[in-house]
Amino acid sequence: MAEEFLPFTEVDNGNFKLRTFLENVDDAELKWHQDLEDRLVSPLHETDWMVQLDNEFPRKLVIGEEILIPKYVWHRLIKGSGDLEVKIVFK
Coil, strand, or helix at residue 32? Predict the structure, then answer.
């Protein structure tokens, strides 16, 4: 069984995870997907990366704002410039 490639590196801090997406990640790796739990996502720095939920327009990731991604909702990241670092709290 082949190991699944994930387009990010991750640090688990117990109550939350920190994920880093590098600017050289291929757009094709940022595909639409669903997750098995609710999560709150917030950027750790100013960025022009965006997140898009099913049937919604893309939203810019803004410092100080959390985006709720409900379980089983299709969503994807849209690459911007530079690396992206986000904090993810699983509900």
Answer: coil
Q: Show Cβ contacts of residue 50 under 8 Å, excluding neighbours closer than 6 positions.
A: 58, 59, 60, 61, 77, 78, 80
Q: How far apart are CA 33 and CA 36, in angstroms?
A: 10
Q: Could you read off the pLDDT of 22-52 as tens digits, one per residue?
A: 999 999 999 999 999 999 999 999 999 999 9
Model confidence pTM above 0.85: yes
Give the Cα separation of 60 and 51 in Å (integer): 7
Q: Is 82 exposed, middle or buried (0-12, 13-18, 19+ CB in 10 A)?
A: middle
Closest listed residue to residue 30, CA positions, set 89, 87, 78: 78
With 0-12 / 13-18 / 19 or more C-beta atoms within 10 angstroms meaning exposed / middle / buried, residue 4 is exposed
Task: Please name every residue paired with 59 in a beta bridge, in sequence order, or none if there are none.
Answer: 51
